[in-house]
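Incident log, structure service

09:12 report received: a user says their structure output differs between two submissions of the same chain.
09:20 pulled the input from the user's history:
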Amino acid sequence: MPDGFDRQAYMIALLVFVAGGTNATIVPLIGFYIIQVLGHPPATVGLYSVVAMIASIAASRFYGERVDAGIRIRPLLLVSITGAMLAAVAAIFGHLLLLVAVTAPSMGLANAATTLVFSYGRYHGRLKALDAGAYNAFLRMMVSLAWMLFPAIAYLIVDVAGAKAVFINAIVMATIWGGLALAFIPHDQTCPMDRQNDADDGGGRNMPLLLAAAANLCMSFAHSLCASALPIFLVREVGLPDYAPGLSLSVKCAMEVLLILLAPRIMRLVSVRVILAGAGVVAIVAFNVIASVQTLPAMIFGAAMEGAYYGLFAGTSLTFIQGFARGRMARATALYMNSIFLASLFAVPLMGIIAQYASFGVAIRLASVGAASALLMLFLTRRQTST
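09:34 re-ran on a clean worker, output below:
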């Protein structure tokens, strides 16, 4: 474990892990559930995604503004936990209308909890003088660890007991999440913003922050396009067994965790911008390798490449964006999360359209365009200085 972290820092990390595990139990299964289990066409996933991502963006922005204003974070977190439970309950019934009308907006609330916990982590780190880059990477690693374990478990449950059993498991996870929130987050806990000065507190347009968020948006778009197409690509187009998507995600997340842990050390040697640019180059190669797999070993190799680029990206992107916050830390964190949500808002429907009229493999190859666009955005930030 990293040196210098206190007990509460680890408790926050545990909360991140369980929250990530709850979402990682539900989110990766939805597209597979709608297409493979319920039998709807691929483009239908876009309808769910649009509702879920709009709800996520609205909730995350609201949470970010409220946290910066000094509102207590525990009630907001409990709302998100209730949303996760409601989403899982509605999904059990297996009707597309309920998935779109109830599960999607409820998952929007659940997704927005990440803004709360990351903001709380950054605030606690500032109070305890923790290394911001190292603690951000540690918290992000806990999310990746959850995504390494729980989707694989979910797909295994699908194989053994069916998709509805996964959603029952998600309800149990959300219950544990709620218990941890009540136990470890003080009732009156707030994370007020730390303004630098009146001129730079984010009242005007913060162009460096927007450029940094745009780079995150483009890379997240590429990742989301590949990730949403990959499960069906592996099972339907390549012909691998049903456990293959879970195995691929586990390998990817294992490599991702390793690179996230290494990210703070790499940041001491080179700038965050250089690391993100390297991640973009690896991503372009990885997408084309993944789209060419025909065997299980090739899939594992492609998943490792995917984990390598995304680990570098995930381990540094939050720190990169927060560096332009100008004191509005929760706002910057919300912008970080919203760029991810917005990426999915466009990527998942686009994946469905491409898959319906071309193939899932083509959708994965086109993710290279998003990674190349991220490189352009990073180039535009080269003369900007972070705080």
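09:41 both user submissions now match this output. Likely a transient worker issue. Closing.
09:42 reviewer note: Residues 196-202 have pLDDT under 50 and may be disordered. The CA atoms of residues 83 and 358 lie 35 Å apart.
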